[in-house]
Amino acid sequence: MEYTLTMAADTAGKSKSAIHRAIQKGRLSARKLEDGTLRIDASELARVYPPSTTGQASGQSETPEPTLGTATAVLETKVQGLEDKVKILEEQVARERGLVEDFQKLLARSDERFLALVHRPVVTPVAAAPERPVEAPTVAPVVAEPVQPPRGLLARLLGR
Predict the structure, then answer these.
(1) Under a CB-based contact definition with an 8 Å cutoff, are residues 30 and 6 in contact?
(2) What per-residue confidence (pLDDT) applies to 89?
(3) pLDDT-derived band of residue 55, with 50, 70 and 90 as boundaries?
(4) What pLDDT sits at residue 76?
(5) Cβ(45)–Cβ(30) under 8 Å?
(6) Mean predicted lDDT score pLDDT of the chain
(7) pTM exceeds 0.85
(8) Pairing mode, if any, of strands 2-3 and 31-32?
């Protein structure tokens, strides 16, 4: 089990700054997460700050031990929360099963359509009566006039 800085301070009965100083001085080891928060192992905290049996020796007031009724109530609350989470997950699974069934139906229909297209009978067209060939209209030949080569600059200036 790992504690945050606040949880470790509460468990050890020290201030957060006292726990932080112990980490900085190397008396208490901690793991730093990517977001910069510290995690302190419970056994490491107990090694540096052993729990006092009297509570009076360190000047702290003794915290009352949890009673069986309190512990039972806490556990019942946790069980109820877990049952609620299970119920939510079961509803999600039911919805997802419905989606899977819908997709399976769509897939079956698309398979039927595909098979209908693939196995469609081939219809050959009925042979029609042969048509008469169409004659192309006759066109008079076009006679091209001889093309004169372009005249050069001197020929144009001299008028030739």
Answers:
(1) no
(2) 93
(3) very low
(4) 84
(5) no
(6) 80
(7) no
(8) unpaired
